[in-house]
Write a structure and sequence with these properties.
Elements: E1 8-12, E2 16-20, E3 29-34, E4 38-41, E5 43-45, E6 48-50, E7 55-57, E8 61-63
Antiparallel strand pairs: 1-4, 1-8, 2-3, 5-6, 6-7
Length: 65
């Protein structure tokens, strides 16, 4: 059986975690995740995780898998 790329699940550690349009801190904020929320990570890029809503800083996300 072929190995498909799997998404990871993460839990938000920050009180509010900004969701950004691009993986850098000066990018436009699209929204926020609340502390304790579970997010699905679909990609990763130099300290950032991509979710279905945008990019978040990986320093504030704990991987659950």
């Amino acid at each position: 059986m072929g190995k498909a790329s799997q998404t990871k699940k993460g839990q938000v550690l920050a009180t509010t975690l900004n969701i950004r349009e691009q993986p850098f801190t000066s990018a436009k904020i699209l929204g926020t995740y609340k502390k304790g929320g579970i997010i699905e990570i679909i990609d990763e890029n130099e300290g950032w995780y991509k979710t279905n809503k945008g990019w978040v800083c990986k320093d504030y996300v704990k991987i659950l898998n």
